[in-house]
């Protein structure tokens, strides 16, 4: 959500985790776009002057073939994931998928991947997809399976459906500062949690659903934001979901 992932940073520094390849969001996006277009890769200025090139054996610095003057560029190879899972607002049984909010890399990576699984808040009719103003951003021919999974993006944000689970993320940010506390967090929120319904109960149940849905719709500009708070509170020992909703 914000700041440095303390747990990841600790493991890198201690040598428990080794970086196989370092990517920025922008470089990954270019790799997915190249794969979507059926290209072997693309050229970019991204990464030049950074340590990413030192820790990524797949990126190659070379001379711009279109320039007569010295002009280094980075060749970014096409990225074709074996399997990806994309969560959307709605999809029909054929795999035509619709989502609200920015697409980021979803459309490109759906075309780039070898296998695509769509999870959705609800499966709707093909008629609904065809005649909805947004249509389908991801077409069925890119999709291998469809799964109806309400709250499938939780504890994340799903545009027009629900907002970030702020208590979950604020507590996580606090607990990762210490390795033992992080282990407690994993036990409470992952190992001892059956499914997403359990997580929802932990953050407030139906009250969280109502507040979160209103907050998400206000964030999208679909309802008046009056009375909706987007203020973050830093989690502290003893806080519960009433303190951070």
Number of helices: 8
- What percentage of amino acids are in beta strands? 15-25%
Q: Topology as H/E string?
A: HHEEEEEHEHEHHHH
Unreliable runs, pLDDT <50, ≥5 residues? none
- Shape designation: globular
Biggest sheet strand order reads 5-4-6-7
Radius of gyration: 21 Å
How many structurally independent domains?
3
Would you write up a description of this structure?
By secondary structure, the chain is α/β, with parallel strands linked by helices. The chain folds into three domains: about 60 residues; about 70 residues, no CATH class; about 90 residues, no CATH class. About 30% of the residues lie in helices and about 15% in strands. The protein is built from eight helices and seven strands. Helix 2 packs across helix 3. About 25% of the residues are buried. The model has no long low-confidence stretch (mean pLDDT about 90).
Keywords:
7 strands; 245 residues; 3-stranded antiparallel sheet; 16% strand; 4-stranded mixed sheet; globular
Task: Briefly characterize the structure.
The chain is of the alpha/beta class.
Would you spell out the secondary-structure blueprint of this structure?
Layout: H1 6-14, H2 25-36, E1 41-44, E2 60-63, E3 72-77, E4 83-91, E5 97-98, H3 106-112, E6 115-123, H4 126-131, E7 145-148, H5 166-175, H6 179-191, H7 196-202, H8 206-219
Parallel strand pairs: 4-6, 6-7
Antiparallel strand pairs: 1-3, 2-3, 4-5
Helix pairs in contact: 2-3
